[in-house]
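Inputs:
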Amino acid sequence: MSAAHERNEATGPLLQVNDLSVDFAVDGFWVPAAKKLNYEVEGGKALAIVGESGSGKSASSMAILDLLPSNARIRGSVKLAGRELRGLRPDEMRKVRGADIAVIFQEPMTALNPVYTVGFQIIETLRIHFGITPSAARERALELLEMVELPDPLKAFNSYPHQLSGGQRQRAMIAQSISCDPKLLIADEPTTALDVTVQAEILDLMRDLRHRLNSAILLITHDMGVVADLADDIVVMRQGEIVERGTVAGVFANPTHPYTQQLLGAVPRIGVSDGEKIDTTAGLRADTTAIELAARAAAEDEARRATLGDPVLAFEHVAIEYPKRGRVPAFRAVDDANFAIYPGEVVGLVGESGSGKTTVGRAAIGLIPIADGTARVVGHDISKANRQLLRKVHKDVGIVFQDPSSSLNPRLPIGQSIGEPMLLSGTAKGRALDARVEELLDAVELPRAYRNRYPHELSGGQKQRVGIARALSLKPKLLIADEPTSALDVSVQATVLELMRRLQDEMGFACLFISHDLAVVDTLSDRIIVMQHGKIVEQGATGQLLRNPQDPYTQRLIAAVPVPDPAEQRLRREARHALLAADRAADNAAEQ
Amino acid sequence: MTIPLDPDFEPPAAPAAEDDGVAVEKAGAQGISQGRLIMRRFLKHKPALISIVLLVLIIGLAVSATGIGSIPGWWKWNYTQLLDPYNNGKPTLSLVPKWLGGEGIMLGEHPFGQNGVGKDYFAMVMRGTMNSAYIMFIIGLIAAFIGVVIGAISGYYRGWVDALLMRLTDVVIVIPVIVLGAVVGVAAGGLGPLFLAVLLGFVAWTGVARLVRAEFLSLREREFVEAARVAGASDARIIFKHILPNAMGVVIVATTLLIAAAIILETSLSFLGYGVQSPDVSLGKLISDNEAAFATKPWLFWWPAFFIVVLSLLVNFIGDGLRDAFDPRQKRVRMKKVKELPPEMAVGSSIGTRAAVPEGAGRGGGSAVGRRQRPMDGENDENGEIDGSQA
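Outputs:
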């Protein structure tokens, strides 16, 4: 760790970026991605660059390492510890990469080479930069894997990337990037691809490593919660320009630029809906008033449900399997699911990737057959459904898909996409159909002229509005929204949620809202269902579940949601650590 | 997209923004389809465009010189007429002008010369070019049709249907096309070029089928297919209305390249004597007939060879142009030609063809939410600035 000492002696900021501009050649013109950026990172500090997709945050950071595609043009100056990086020869630049500046990429599965073991890839980096013997490199690699808190470093060393879980892979990636003791760590959306609970662990690890290695971190993210958790300073980017900068505490407490205010306002906050605030932090600490409030919320919910009549969706002991294909045995994705959705009710379904939440949504609409149990949807039993029955069911059920760019046929004008369910069910034709399509476009706040546009001419948020219009075209009794906002930017997500809330008020459909983000679900839902490993672990009224979660998994899930407020986030972090310690103690006690 | 800082606040510029929306409605009444975008990209591809023009000219020359059916062509000789040798059968075509010391630009009596028995070689080559082009297009179209149908069915239905059709494909693939073509050619050679082309089309579809199948396998997992299924679409509608238009790029490119391969297949078969039979001619047959004369009368070899190479190159260039048009990511950027963005275009990120209407704008009249929309992508800034300046 001698490098760390040298670093402290050097004066001035570690990274100085002056007038950095990045342009891309598009159709014969230089289109700017970043315009004259200026920022500095001090050694041992973390700077967050925040912005939405297309704001140029990633492009400008990759420009530091000269890792842009060939149609890019970089101008300006980048100095690392006083040394100019622009204009270095390729072989000199190669030495800087990895040794002085390391990168943690967004998607560890694609950033690690699938045909080599994790250990081999770390050894490779070590030997390229230090020229040490294989056995010394191996020792160091194991040391690094231990440093990133992998449960079994030796096993991870010998594993291929696909054999590790998402969080473990990200840890292995971090081990590789810190292997040369870099002065600067560029983390490009390091937790976006991870589940919330894993994200919290990785953020813990990064905070811990920063103090131990004294490296500076350049954190690129769109998630204000992550910023509040990890960064010291913040730079807000919009359309290639820096609109605001300052310390995290300062900017969060008092954002001056309207864009920053919007960005902060758009972040869904757990426990805040309809002006009523639920103190989830208190709930985690088992506050008695929170428990009382939770009990009252549960009673209210009970009373409300009693007046609603028959459920539109009822699962009783439902199991869903993916059938066996070739030698791959059948996989039971969901087991023993019991829940009901009453008319006009919004139910949030939360879980991490692989928990079976999407499977439940697809099964409810008959896209996946049900293996066991009974499922009643809008009055039909779809457990043994055939095509005719499903066609009847589909008239009363709509679905909004996750990825707006994949869920619209790129070759059809959006008016046709919206009108297709009506055309095929025979509810409207010709003029009447056109009128209905225009009505729906009005409802989702898109211009009527958009019916002739094609999906590629629309932005992500607009496409998702089209998806919602299509799902609502048959005036369904039940809407299944499968992560409708997870592919969107925060501010777009906020407006789409707003739109869904308004449409639900107006049309009164019941809704199963599937999401991985508890903060998104709780703003909309009357009730929340939490799934883990294909099982429903807890369900209840929103007020009850957030205030007084019973299942340890739900508690961990609530604790892991980052809050865009540095002070509150610190409190939550401590509550989460206490919770985890208690869990561990309970486990140990159980073992003895 | 705005999260209103003050829910009661309505920006003073809201009516203006609505007017904008109406104006855009009129301007943008018609969207640009992907087909038209591809067409536009294809038209920018110079080599492909030139190739199309040249191909049309060559085929036009061949057809008009030979004539179709009972309509006679403009060339004075017929490809079957026996004539007296003129100038020892040498080509009379001259392309060097007189002022450069040549004989001047002229066709002469027999521009491509005469063959051993005195037939006019220009008439024969034109007839051969016409036959070869005709055969190659028929092969291409039939093979593409069979390939698309088989590929689409096996890719969409998967399971045992897929297994059965793909094993059938494998069987056709393992038999060399040239051998299959030879057998077919011997049996069908006498029945004329059309019959030969149709039969060859029945063995050349394997490549297209595999590509289309792969494309269907990936497209059927896209969410818009599931959305169509939920909307109540039948299998046929999903295949033809939803998936096939999205797979057209692969089909068109594969077919073009298949056509380029088909001309080689036809000429090789004719060269081996299994293709077009006498007295009819094709380019391959001309080479085969005259291979012995290569040392003495080389033009009998060079003229058909030239047309084979040119036809096949032109079709390949067109195929490349189509591929670039369908998949612009493969195109290389020539950095020197890139210009600075003119200032009037430099507002916000104008990358791509995104509509110049802010997220959710336009029809905002009915609801306050609609009026408060603002662009994140920055096409329309004023609205947003006003919105924010309130804070």
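Remarks. The beta strands of chain B are 339-340. The first strand of chain B starts at residue 339 and ends at 340.
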